[in-house]
Write a structure and sequence with these properties.
Helix content is about 20%, strand content about 35%. With about 100 residues, it is an alpha+beta fold. Strands 1, 2, 3, 4, 5 and 6 form a six-stranded antiparallel β-sheet that branches.
Length: about 100
């Protein structure tokens, strides 16, 4: 059985738009990235998957502090990773527009 043992959210910012990606690490040591297009990309290891995310300028959401978030154009108080009952519903939440700043 290839159960999920861990998952982590990654975020990239383009102005006031956030793009999310979810990394899942499987028991067998493989990893999957669920991307903003609704694709599930499979990697041979979590290190390879993280490298792909970093190459695409994503950062680990749980590794951000408020100063890091502000440098990327948002506050940790205003965002959290998307949630949905399944990946089909989650797909529509993977790109988040924060609107204009006041």
């Amino acid at each position: 059985m290839n159960e999920t043992i861990d998952y982590q959210w990654y975020v990239a910012s383009l102005g006031r738009t956030l793009v999310w990606a979810r990394l899942r690490v499987r028991e067998a040591g493989t990893a999957e990235i669920f991307d903003s297009d609704g694709n599930t990309l499979t990697y041979d290891s979590d290190d390879t998957a993280r490298a792909a995310l970093f190459d695409a300028e994503f950062v680990a959401f749980d590794g951000l502090d408020e100063d890091d978030a502000l440098a990327r154009g948002f506050s940790l108080d205003e965002v959290s990773p998307p949630r949905a009952e399944n990946d089909a519903a989650l797909r529509n939440l993977m790109v988040q527009s924060l609107g204009a700043r006041a």
